[in-house]
Amino acid sequence: xxxxxxxxxxxxxxxxxxxxxxxxxxxxxxxxxxxxxxxxxxxxxxxxxxxxxxxxxxxxxxxxxxxxxxxxxxxxxxxxxxxxxxxxxxxxxxxxxxxxxxxxxxxxxxxxxxxxxxxxxxxxxxxxxxxxxxxxxxxxxxxxxxxxxxxxxxxxxxxxxxxxxxxxxxxxxxxxxxxxxxxxxxxxxxxxxxxxxxxxxxxxxxxxxxxxxxxxxxxxxxxxxxxxxxxxxxxxxxxxxxxxxxxxxxxxxxxxxxxxxxxxxxxxxxxxxxxxxxxxxxxxxxxxxxxxxxxxxx
Length: 298
Description:
- It is a single chain.
- The protein is mainly alpha-helical.
- The chain contains 14 helices and no strands.
- It has two domains: 1-45, no CATH class; 46-293, no CATH class.
- 63% of the residues lie in helices and 0% in strands.
- The chain is globular, with a radius of gyration of 22 Å.
């Protein structure tokens, strides 16, 4: 439950605007805030699973982690010879990394560590600061890492997507200057749109992400019968054997962990979408991503 109210832009908490229907209600809430009584009077729930909440969660959270399993194979295979051990072993590592790291760690465990419905580094620090004062140090490091990630990730993700357009015959041979200009234009547009609130971003991109993941499911399912031996990758035995016996297999874990890129958004956006909406949408995303990975031609 989120016990919060702000008289600025409330688009980050859907449903808040219903509390400010008239001036009288607004004045009552201001008085309650001053008296420290608001948390007893107003309870804004983001925990209820709704269609709108699921769509917003898809649009806000999964733009990064939802697509990362698609390029992780390129990072793993590289110039290596494609063999059955490489494909089954690396795919098994990806599946079990998503299961242990993202599903169990973040979705099942970490999402329970909310601070009045809010998640993220500083919300977590607010929960533990009373126990040890020195915990401010890892909180500062986490905050710095959060700022660094927020600066680095968008340009890298957008640049990779634009460079991928060069595979189209009509755009083949696109110059670096053209790529930079397009990336800067997209970044400027995205950061301009941020002023309208996170919920508006989620509403805009949620349907697009829903279509994207559904397309992955359809394309992946259509190729599942091409080679049923791919289902062997569901066994952790192949992941363990890959790490132990494949040449330099252990060092490929760095590439494998690319599949969890963006998993921190599951926790940091807890206050925007709610625990239940995030959990429900994640199981939808996780059930569809392996379908794409199972394609023999991927």
